[in-house]
Amino acid sequence: MAKANKPIALPVTVKRPFRIIAHRGASAYAPENTMAAFKLATDMGVTDIELDVQLSSDGEAVICHDLSLTRYGITGYVEAMSWPELSQLDMGSWFSPYLFQGEKLLRLQDLFKEYDAELTYHIELKGTAPQLPHQVCRVIEAYNLRDHIVITCFSYEILMQVRAIAPYLRLGWLVRDIDKKVLAKAKALELFQLCPRADRLTQQAVRLAHSIVPEVRAWGINGKREDVLALIQKTLAADCDGITVNWPDWISH
């Protein structure tokens, strides 16, 4: 009879400086991208958080992942609404009306005011507003947090815009795979991170990436408990430098 696999004990222990990045905050336990999720992540000891930013119709850098608010039980689009309108929305009841009713959207400046230089902010640029890179860079400069920022995006062209606006900022490119074309473009833009999907990682690809960029961090850690744990183990085995995870308490230094 084959032996059953030994269950993985939590938390999974990793060595510093591996980045445990709370994905939209501790988003498995609190509504994503809200102060409740970020506070819980910091209570868990996390010092790296990932968040999504897009522009309101009046140019505020608003922390929200989806362009449409439908998944949160709200009609409308972030980019079509003003900050005074967005600031009144209930962003907690979709997750738990008992625990989080009335939880509000945040602006990037609200998060910076709360945590300042205590955290490293992995800011993913979302949406279609042409002024988004400029506005995000302005807010970062206003709070003097350039050394605590990694700007990420799936769009290489938007990362190029950020490089032109703020050449000192660290940039991370979100990709599915690491291949020759990706490596060439990463070298051309002098990226700080390449961010591949965890389920498509190979140790060889990570090794090649490390010849071009200082860090490789994985994304897409989803699924059932056993799937999430397997992906965490996969990133560690591939020698990644970090991971975005909805369950930041599942990993510990």
Provide key terms for this protein:
9 helices, 253 residues, two-stranded parallel sheet, 8-stranded parallel β-barrel, alpha/beta
What does this structure look like?
With 253 residues, this protein is of the alpha/beta class. The protein contains nine helices and twelve strands. The protein has helices at 35-43, 83-86, 97-100, 108-115, 132-142, 156-165, 180-189, 203-210, 225-237, and strands spanning 12-13, 19-23, 48-55, 61-63, 106-107, 120-125, 149-153, 170-174, 193-195, 215-218, 242-245, 251-252. The protein is globular and about 50 Å long.
Task: Tell me the Rg in angstroms.
Answer: 18 Å
Mean pLDDT: 96
Choose one word for the global shape. globular
The structural class is: alpha/beta
- Estimated share of beta-strand residues: 15-25%
End-to-end gap = 36 Å
**Helical segment tally?**
9
